[in-house]
Amino acid sequence: MPVRSASRQPDGVPSWFKTPQGQAVLHSEDEAARQALRERPGMPALWLAPHYGQVEEKTGICVRLAQNGGLFAGDIHCDATLPIASEAVGTVILQHIAEAYPDWPELLEECARVLIPGGRLWVFALNPLGLFRARWSGNGLRSCEPVTWRRRMRAHGLQPEPVSVGLGPRWKVQTLSDPQTGAGSRAAYLLRAEKQVIPLTRIRQPALRWQPSRLPTA
């Protein structure tokens, strides 16, 4: 599929996730990513990340894409316009893409489009309120609090969960896989949202009126 020019490619931004600090964050999210892939084994999944990780799941079809500046490479090559049919994917994993990808608003719209009704979006994001921010600040990355992500999700017909999940280290560069309720001081957080099912429009039936039966007269 032809893609647009990568002239807006942010030089080296995703490379932070290849540093020991970035690897500690990604490896801390491995189990959550496995859970996402196991959630709907009968449906295809789509996984977008800064680069290929170590998680390998044999639960079905999973299209994996790694960010390459303003483009994506992997099982397919594309930009923010995904060459995937609408309502064809049961699970979408968006792992630290909005932090560095220039066209993330369009990409989020595309993620909502390809999800089936009742499908789920898993967003992994850096926590701007955690101490670990000092380790990625100044590298061209951006992040926001879960409340902002919830607004974004609702704007695209997704229903986010009321509480996020904190993941990753607090300050020390180490893999910390145990999740916690709320982002707290963890390096990253997970927020899930489900695509709302649009109910069928009910056709109003005319009100029934009782009429006395007409009996034959003698």
SSE arrangement:
Elements: H1 20-28, H2 30-39, E1 45-49, E2 62-68, E3 71-74, E4 89-95, H3 104-114, E5 115-126, H4 133-136, H5 146-155, E6 158-160, E7 165-167, E8 180-181, E9 188-195
Parallel strand pairs: 1-2, 1-4, 4-5
Antiparallel strand pairs: 2-3, 5-9, 6-9, 7-8, 7-9
Structure in words:
The chain is α/β, with parallel strands linked by helices. It contains five helices and nine strands. The protein has helices at about 20-30, 30-40, 105-115, 135, 145-155; strands spanning about 45-50, 60-70, 70-75, 90-95, 115-125, 160, 165, 180, 190-195. The chain has a single domain (about 15-195), classed as Vaccinia Virus protein VP39 (Rossmann fold), CATH 3.40.50.150. The longest helix has 11 residues, at about 105-115. Strands 1, 2, 3, 4, 5, 6, 7, 8 and 9 form a nine-stranded mixed β-sheet that branches. Helices cover about 20% and strands about 25% of the residues. It is globular and about 40 Å long. The model is unreliable at about 1-10 (pLDDT under 50). A hairpin with a 2-residue loop joins strand 2 (about 60-70) and strand 3.
